[in-house]
Amino acid sequence: MDILHFQEIVGISPYIVLFLIVGATAAGFIDSICGGGGLISVPVLLLAGFSPAQAIAANKLQGTLGGLASTHYYLNKNIIEWAVLRKMTIGSVIGGAFGTLIVNFVGNGFMETALPIMLVGMAFYFAFSPSVSDVGGKAIMPISMLGASVIPCIGIYDGFFGPGAGTFYLMALVSLGGMAMTQAVAYSRVLNLFSNAISLMIFIALGKMVWAAGLAMSLGEVIGVYLGSHLVHKNGVKLVKPLVVVACIGMAIKSIYS
To answer: Best exposed site among 58, 158, 163, 246 by fewest CB in 10 Å?
Structure first.
């Protein structure tokens, strides 16, 4: 099959497909460790010539399939407890749905301004807080309360803006839930999966999905997620803590200059 026939069948050129896969692999790797891969994958889609709505929709498909891959990995490692997860999943689903619906009525200019400040604050927390370790700390609030209050708020953010949502889940679980770092990474990936999945369903219903782009990004995301998840499980806080700090600072700079 030559390039023209490929483009006629798939709808985009093979060079664009390769570009999307490579970009999504990098995003998936970052996502699986500390979140924030959307600040890589969305610009990659925009550079490939897709509209903002198409880019966000494809990113949701990518994030959903990457979240499935990451969840499958962590379930096999017996890191996730269903009894704990159930207390938080409903909040992430409701929040993700609500956020995706209100994006049509409320602009996200405020979040574009506030995001760099929040990310820099998270970087300082992860860099200097003694509670960030592979040993669980003291929980400030019960998981059920966290799942009914903070988690839905992050889900709303994920639904209508998105980049860095995985990092916000991670910080909430460590700082408020008292989880060890490796455990918090696993749960944050699953929660990110649920808020992404409901948002994806709404985008599909609205007819915003470009399937070829979404599937190409999803392939790269799954590759990156498996690589990153393996490193998290093997290295724990030694890998995650510095990467979270670097990623937060990098995302803050990226969002300022976007």
So the answer is: 246
CA distance readout (Å), 122 to 163, 222, 254: 14, 26, 15
Closest CA relative to residue 200, chosen from 104, 45, 57, 54: 57
Residue 195's closest CA among 166, 218, 224, 217? 166
Tell me the per-residue pLDDT of 136-159, one tens digit each, with 9 for 90 and over. Answer: 567 789 999 999 999 999 999 888
Q: Which residue has the higher pLDDT, 197 or 252?
A: 197
pLDDT at 234 over 70: no
- 120, part of any domain: yes
Residue 84 has pLDDT above 90, yes or no: yes
Record the pTM: 0.73
Asked whether residue 5 is domain-assigned, the answer is: no
DSSP state of 207: T
Residue 7 lies in a domain: no
